[in-house]
Amino acid sequence: MESKILAWQIRRDVLDMVHSAHASHIGSVFSVADIVAVLYTDFVDKEQLLRRDKERTRIILSKGHAGAAIYAALAEIGLMDKKELQTYGMNGSKLSCHVSHNHVAGIEISTGSLGQGVGMAAGIALAGKKAGRHYRTFVIAGDGECNEGSVWEMALFARQQKLNNLTMIVDCNGLQAMGKTADILDMRDFESKFDSFGWHVQSVNGHDHAVLKAALLYVDETKPTCIIANTVKGKGVSFMENNNLWHYRDPQGEAYDNAVMELERQRP
Questions:
Q1: Class assignment of domain 3-265?
Q2: Three-state SS at 29
């Protein structure tokens, strides 16, 4: 499956999942969908994930509230029955609204507490280096998540350990739960910050698949990599784009119908 098709399918699946579950975070999922699609199309071996091969690519979603994107991607590449997506967010479902690895093949760790996943990703990368493994670890974090001090503790640690097998992607959509990131805690220039912490840094359009793939392919010989992926929260549905109401709101009634129509017009 091509990454652009997978990204569209993630958005289409998640629209139905969030609608049925009356769940939150559709804006966050839509901003990260292209990043997830490129990773699962071009950097993951499905069979390695299924058998938990020691050399499998590790993908950690540190912004765990966007977990529906991972579930949809796994279903679309054949690691999960698509019928499972209909149980998302329901009582007793293994598909919790923050990403969970419990009985879900292809997910490395459960996350939700912001700043948690990046530290675990660094530990996984370090373990790989110490064991002489050649796998890469990718971790997706949010720009609002970078308000957490644990992110910067990890950044220092990864530089010190020369974790060139670690790539962090910051989904930089400019919004977080209660408003604009610049208003809540202005992080200013991410690129210069990670550079000053000793990382290789690239800033890219987080919705351009060719550019994303090229950036993700790059490995520095001596340092970890941070990709600042500039995205639009709610990308793909016009009335959700850059509208922070859709951090928590779930699409019902006319909003759901209009979102379906917009996405269907974009079908690859």
A1: alpha beta
A2: helix
